[in-house]
Write a structure and sequence with these properties.
This protein is mainly alpha-helical. It is built from 14 helices and no strands. The protein has helices at about 1-25, 30-55, 60-70, 70-105, 110-125, 125-135, 145-150, 160-170, 170-185, 185-195, 200-230, 230-235, 245-255, 260-295. The radius of gyration is 26 Å and the shape is globular. The chain starts with a helix and ends with a helix.
Length: about 300
């Protein structure tokens, strides 16, 4: 009797597993269709355009390619792009870590409002963001006359480009760290405080090691956006050749002048930076997954 019941239950379990497998396993032609569709879109919308950039960049030969990159206006654009990234990324790193620490570790009035403000650049068009700074710091803006009287130039100068870039990139580090730190909770920090650790010691020896790869991931994304930003920078730069043109703006000017080889040469430099960013991002994701797995085992 008992054996018959066990056999019946086993058969029922097998049939149940088969139904689950049938419900979650697609037929071969469906899998091929899905994979083929993904590869088709990847090829048409990513691989071919990326390949076209490098083909057009080297169409006139290596000498013409190198000449387009070492040309004075191109070197000025490269320098401005690097300066913009070197200023905006560290500032956003400090803000992002501070904001994430405050939001995840403390309760205070206006907490939800702060989170909303952090997300604001994601919902505002970069062109509108640039226009905001023009209305505030431009010659006809709220504070424009004061800056003119004191011989301080913000719009159509490097400070305006820095402000616009910082605005459009400041959510990246914070939005990467907030869910990570919320998932980790406060237990380890509270234990460290009970053992006598001070605020900076808690952050340095407890919090920072747990969020390190998240910080690096946010910095990589922030740096990629800072170097490739076009809309906001285009509004506040004034397109002054050799002075306020970043790499994306320089590409636009070369293309509008029908200097296609030089335009694609400079564009290829941005593409290389994007590919390097993608490789670093992939490595950071892999390393973070390993660290999380090791943390769970411990």
């Amino acid at each position: 009797m008992a054996g018959g019941i066990a056999t019946a239950l086993g058969a029922k379990s097998i049939r149940g597993n088969q139904r689950i497998n049938n419900a979650t396993t697609e037929s071969p032609w469906v899998r091929r269709l899905i994979i083929g569709t993904g590869l088709f879109y990847f090829t048409i919308f990513l691989l071919l355009p990326l390949g076209a950039v490098f083909v057009e960049a080297f169409r006139k030969g290596v000498d013409a390619y190198l000449a387009a990159l070492v040309e004075p206006d191109a070197m000025s654009a490269i320098k401005l792009t690097l300066i913009t990234a070197l200023v905006s990324v560290p500032l956003n790193l400090v803000f992002g870590v501070s904001a994430a620490w405050a939001i995840t570790k403390f309760n205070f009035p206006g907490k939800r409002f702060l989170i909303t403000l952090i997300d604001l650049p994601f919902s505002v068009s970069p062109v509108i963001a640039g226009l905001i700074f023009v209305l505030v710091f431009g010659a006809q803006g709220w504070f424009g006359s004061w800056f003119l009287d004191n011989d301080i130039k913000i719009i159509f100068a490097v400070p305006g480009i820095l402000l616009a870039t910082i605005f459009v990139t400041f959510p990246f580090v914070a939005r990467e760290l907030i869910p990570l730190m919320e998932a980790q909770g406060k237990e380890e920090e509270e234990a460290a405080i009970v053992l006598g650790a001070r605020g900076w010691q808690v952050f340095r020896y407890v919090t920072l090691p747990n969020i390190l790869w998240g910080v690096i991931y946010g910095v990589v994304l922030c740096n990629a956006r800072a170097m490739g930003e076009f809309g906001a920078v285009s509004v506040v730069s004034g397109h002054i050749r050799g002075e306020t043109n970043s790499l994306p703006l320089h590409v636009e000017i070369l293309y509008n002048e029908y200097n296609f080889a030089a335009a694609f040469a400079v564009a290829s430099l941005l593409a290389v930076l994007a590919l390097l960013t993608l490789l670093i991002k992939t490595y950071v994701e892999w390393k973070a997954a390993q660290v999380n797995a090791q943390h769970k085992e411990d």
